[in-house]
Write a structure and sequence with these properties.
The chain has 120 residues and is mainly beta. The chain is built from two helices and eight strands. It has an eight-stranded antiparallel β-sheet. The longest helix has 5 residues.
Amino acid sequence: MLISLRHCVLDDGKVHATWGATYPVAYDYDAWGRMIAMATTRDPAYANQNLWNLLGYDLFLIDTDDPDYPSDLDTTLWIYDLSTGLMTGKTYADGQVLAANGNCTTSAIGKCTTPKAVLL
């Protein structure tokens, strides 16, 4: 059986999803083109699906705190400083935060309780 690798590329020229011959991955970017979120899943049932289809029309990859957010998605969020635009850290699906200085804790930057304010 031949499985093809598929990509979803939007008008901005960036890949927003990949699925098929690899683990499915979805990406989201902010208005400045910086990656703000990446989601994947280990569930083989979604291997040949665009993960954006799991979110529906009213959710985005950064909406991980929303009760309707699919629990099958493992999502990483990028955190940026509003004044400089520089990345200050990443929040992983398990809740760990990696600060830009390389320290991985659950409180270095906080538990990412305000990613929407920072990322939008």
